[in-house]
Write the structure tokens for this entry.
Amino acid sequence: MANFSTNEFKSGLKVMLDGDPCSILENEFVKPGKGQAFNRVKMRNLKSGRVWERTFKSGDSLEGADVMDMTLEYSYTDGEFWYFMDPASYEQFAADCDAVSETEKWLKEQEQYEVTLYNGAPLAVTPPNFIELAITETDPGLKGDTAQGGSKPATLGTGAVVRVPLFITEGEVIRIDTRSGEYVSRASKS
Amino acid sequence: MEVETPLLAQATVPDPNLEVFAVSTDVMGESPYRFLQTSPEFAMKRLLAAGSGDIFQISKAFRKEESGRHHNPEFSLLEWYRVDWDHRMLIREVAELVCEMLGRAGWQVWTYRALFQEHLSVDLFDPGIGRLQLLDVAHQRIGDMPPDLDYDATLALLMTHCIEPAISDWGVVFVTEFPVSQAALARTMAVDSGAVAARFECYIDGCEVANGYWEQCDVAALTAQFVTDNEQRQQRGLPIRELDQRLLAAQAEGLPDCAGVALGVDRLLALQTGVSSLAETLSFDWHRA
């Protein structure tokens, strides 16, 4: 991979730091009038998800990381790996539980996910912002309930539990915001 | 007197922390490159040596690879020189100018040493405080640090990461009496505690806006500074700069005793208009130019 100098550090650039792939978030150039200049860089460690703040001497460089994002279709899991497929080439990628992580509860077959590949293997899986899932279990709604008022827990086909309005019933398909994990609406009829 | 000096010149500064844009000239019989000036300092000093008296100009200056919230590689400098003044007199003039422009009531003057004592509890004149001790202080305050910092780079790191944020609510602050190793083109002078550089920086709300010197008039000392700069460039694997013989010849003839300052016009405008980045004061910043 190519090396990147601090003045090439831009938001989204993927570089290697301490053996881990990182994504640059912010890069601030500072210089005390005269003298040595520095770059204060915020980056996300793509393995741990943690944000690191590091200072570099301006002009120092880091090796680029072989990281790319692909839109892949979720196929199935064998319990150990979660398999994703490139809908164009039919190539399969096996993601382990570290890569799937929290996204597991939003995994739906034939749905498309943003998969970050590091050296060709899935490093992280990001769900679409909104996803439609069927409710497998929830208490029956009370008669006379309207859109206003309380909520109740509902278990989805993926195992995720979200709070839904009381009028939602078992078997219904609902739309969820995966970023907050909140119910948005009933799914649009198709 | 207002003056105008060339932006493209045959020589440039050897300062190891300044990178220049070299422009291909393609003229037969000339050196293949000219350099966009990082400040009009050398040309203005040649005018001073020729007897111009007090001079000023607002001009563009160019510094490669300096790009960020407070930096644009192409920027404007107000630079002026006062014959027979020292840096203390010039501090007062700069202070009056910026206070009037920004509607500030007053200013403070701090020595570099006092600022480090106040904010970092280290005395730079203590013979027990060297590079390693400063690295220790920096490590405690900043945590992770770049490797291979020399003494001055460590001071620079403490300045940008600790002192500048600490004086960001102090208004107009002049920092003066710099370590001799950071004299640049200022003369050195003796104070009670030892030798210091007769140099100052003006900070407003933690943002550096001006750098001034009681100028180094001794041509031998100036040449020695340039040679040291080039040695540092060589150590860092940077291109060596040929010394500006026209400047040295003019200074050999005699630069009058004077003080000079360069003030970042774009930064002053950003402060005056209350915007947080230089880009907002420019028609088109570096990335859109």
Q: What stands out?
A: The two ends of chain A are 46 Å apart (CA to CA). Chain A touches chain B at residues 7, 27-38, 40, 52-60 (CB under 8 Å).
